[in-house]
UniProtKB/TrEMBL annotation:
NCBIfam families reported for this sequence: sufD
Organism: Allokutzneria oryzae
InterPro entries: Fe-S_cluster_assembly_SufBD, SUF_FeS_clus_asmbl_SufBD_core, SUF_FeS_clus_asmbl_SufBD_sf, SUF_FeS_clus_asmbl_SufD
Protein name: Fe-S cluster assembly protein SufD
Family in the record: Belongs to the iron-sulfur cluster assembly SufBD family.
Superkingdom of origin organism: Bacteria
Lineage: Bacteria, Bacillati, Actinomycetota, Actinomycetes, Pseudonocardiales
Pfam family, one: SUFBD_core
Limits of the SUF system FeS cluster assembly SufBD core domain: 113-340
Length: 370
């Protein structure tokens, strides 16, 4: 089936209960989803959402019937539809027209606690020619499913950095829906570190020509963790650009990561330029990384399109080069891992997030003895 024909709906019952053989679910351990995929997981707690923003930024809590909600995209699976129908109040953050937010906007989502299930909805909106950086930070415990809408008006520039750093018990299923206006620029970065099971699905679609989207990701899986990222970039209008780069490291028995990268260039999307890359570094035995890039092109009138994927262990040539210059093997391994992630870390413009990520990687390397 072409990616353009995948079913979407706000109705939970319009989706069949997944059994694990469906393309959209075949890598996900359904038994570890705490019933979210069944559409029957009752709300037993409420995740808290705290927002720190400048005076020019509007922060609201709105009901599901608000006309501004649901414009960025429609749920593409049963869990996303359940989250849409189960949240009690949506957090709406708006950067008004032509406003340039000088400080990062901090949105912190804290789980309801171990053994609880919660649902949420966050919309990040940059109106025409607005500019802002938003840090969306997930932390705490519990089972949480949500939808995140990212809406860019014409000419807007929005950077969204999502940090997923749950406690070890947490289960998190999240769908990000990005809508990029004419000549707008979206920089979307995901940093996934914590949680028992995390499944994050960013989708980007264009609302006018000239849109530019860059989707970056860093993830580090420990023993027993399942970290899954499923991306979809939908080029439906001409003269737009997308670039996807995700990198992950794994260590420990049964550490498992999944990366699915779907790019669709529709017939109307002439002069599209797109590329996607996923690389995985296996630090120990017993870890597994699944990587599936998909590129579907319906027109030959494009500027460029490509994808690449690689999974492997330390580069022996890099280690030899460093050791030949007197660097001990353990330090050489650390330098290789730092260099592996540097391309993405260097693009994180929020110093606190960059330093937090660097410290987390150092702690992971220390734990595995690299």
């Amino acid at each position: 089936m072409t990616r353009s024909e995948w079913f979407t709906s706000f109705d939970v019952e319009a989706f069949e209960v997944p059994g694990g053989r469906e393309e959209n679910w075949r890598f996900t351990p359904l038994k570890r989803l705490a019933g979210l995929h069944l559409g029957e997981a009752a709300t037993t707690g409420t995740a808290t959402v705290d927002v720190v923003a400048g005076e020019a930024v509007r922060v609201e809590t709105v009901e599901r019937g608000d006309a501004r909600l649901g414009v960025a995209g429609t749920p593409g699976d049963r869990v996303a539809a359940q989250a849409w129908n189960s949240f009690t109040g949506a957090t709406l953050v708006t950067v008004p027209k032509e406003v340039v937010a000088t400080e990062p906007i901090l949105v912190t989502v804290t789980g309801a606690g171990r053994g609880t299930t919660s649902y949420g909805h966050v919309q990040l909106r940059a109106e025409q020619f607005a500019e802002a950086v938003v840090v969306l930070d997930y932390r705490g415990s519990g089972v949480h499913a949500d939808n995140v809408e990212i809406v860019l008006g014409d000419g807007a520039k929005l950077t969204v950095v999502t940090v997923v750093d749950w406690a070890d018990d947490a289960v998190h299923v999240s769908s990000h829906h990005g809508k990029v206006g004419r000549d707008a620029t979206l920089r979307h970065t995901v940093v996934t570190l914590g949680g028992n099971l995390v499944r994050l699905s960013p989708t980007v679609a264009y609302d006018g020509p000239g849109g530019d989207a860059e989707l970056l990701g860093v993830y580090f899986a420990d023993a027993g963790q399942h970290l899954e990222h499923r991306l979809f970039v939908d080029h439906g209008v001409p003269n737009c650009r997308s670039n996807v780069v995700y990198k992950g490291a794994l260590q420990g028995e049964d550490a498992h990561t999944v990366w699915i990268g779907d790019v669709l260039i529709r017939a109307a999307a002439e002069a599209t330029n797109t590329f996607e890359l996923n690389r995985n570094l296996l630090l120990t035995d017993g870890a597994r990384a699944d990587s599936v890039p998909n590129l579907e092109i319906e027109t030959g009138e494009i500027e460029g399109a490509g994808h690449a994927s690689a999974t492997g262990r330390f580069d022996d040539e890099q280690l030899f080069y460093l050791q030949a210059r007197g660097i001990p093997v353990e330090q050489a391994r650390r330098l290789v891992v730092r260099g592996f992630f540097h391309e993405i870390i260097a693009k994180i413009t929020v110093p606190e997030v960059r330093e937090r990520l660097e410290a987390a990687i150092e702690a992971e390397l220390e734990a595995v003895g690299v």
